[in-house]
Amino acid sequence: MRQSRLDRQLRIEGWNQQALENAKVGVVGDDDLLASLYIMSASALGINHVVALAPTLSPTLTEVAQKLNRRFSLTHVEGFYTHPAMADLFNACDLIVDLSHYGLANKLLLEKGYRQKKPVVRGLCYERNGTQGFKVFTYIRGREWLDLEQIISPHSLPNDHFDDGVLDTIITGIILEETKNLLMGQDVSDNLISYSRKELSTSNDQKKMLVVGSGALGIFVGLGLAYSGFRQIIFMDPDVVEVTNLNRQIFFYDAVGESKAKTLSTKLNALFGIDSNHQVAYFDRNSDISSFDVVFDCVDNFESRIVLSEKCAGQGKMLISGGTSPDAGQVVIYNPAKNNVTPAKLLGLYDIIEKRSPETYQRERAACIYHPDPSVIMTNQIAAGFMVDAYRMLLNGQEPKNIFYDSKSNTRF
């Protein structure tokens, strides 16, 4: 079961699953969502040992972590990191992930990292001077000359702070990528990884949404929409859950052989009280999108993405298109009000399809068992988070840019 669950990431060249499974990771969190999201994602990746110091963790997400990975062990100490003596909790850890929002913890952890030569990956989302965003930085002893003050919270002690489930999802993916690189002895970013945009206003205007594809990308798009308060969502996917999906498709741990779209809709409705529904079907030229305000493209093949582009352009519908590989991803926005180029044209999908031999895409359905490409959770979290944030920006009258993420780049996007 373990081998099958992790199959898609074990296919990645140079991948060292043993390094992840043998590691122990320390996590310092706050009374918010971020630490819980990271712990769940780390479990999905196959990290088996986490020690967390946080006042609370989400029971829902920690339960998912336990059910995804039967080897997963979580030691949770309730509280805030406010005294040097607490550092002993993390003495056996290979690295520490700092997700706190107060300066005392940030400084104590950097000091521990310096004295014990222990890496500290710091991540936070913030709201300041009319902007919202996030910052991620990996501290390794010797980087004292870098602008460490940019990752120290201005608040000395725990207090109320800005938190956002969509930005948290992106941060989690980036930090987990850094975690993986540290444990496998690969390069981490030398830069402060940051993202910002204008502050978003909340709206009670409920839009109707179609999410095409209920795999990893569709799951995290659905999760981000639910965190953002959207309720009327239809998930479309023809496939059933395979064991090899489970390293990244977090809600399917008990649904092997069942419909992806139905399972995802049912889980999100139960967790968030939303009104989502599902269609077990392919998206094709006969699919009706007339009732939807926006379409999210989370499919795994170029043919369907071309049809999505053409249908949305023909009917003047917003289209947020996402795609991922094991180490990269992209988000392309089609806004008919701005007469944008469609994702299919921008990404050159017509040329790709024309050059591809017909037999390279012959299968009865789109399940991953027929398309065994390497895949991991991180790029799906990052792309999905940016997809949802792009739509929120559009609703606020902002103009989101297309995002191209590259895990090998210091700046990342």
UniProtKB/TrEMBL annotation:
Entry protein name: ThiF family adenylyltransferase
Keyword set, alphabetical order: Membrane, Nucleotidyltransferase, Transferase, Transmembrane, Transmembrane helix
Keyword Endoplasmic reticulum appears in the UniProt entry: no
GO molecular function: nucleotidyltransferase activity; thiosulfate-cyanide sulfurtransferase activity; ubiquitin-like modifier activating enzyme activity
Residue ranges of every copy of the THIF-type NAD/FAD binding fold domain listed in the record: 206-400
One of the Pfam families matching this protein, by short name: ThiF
Membrane-spanning ranges: 209-230
GO cellular component: cytoplasm
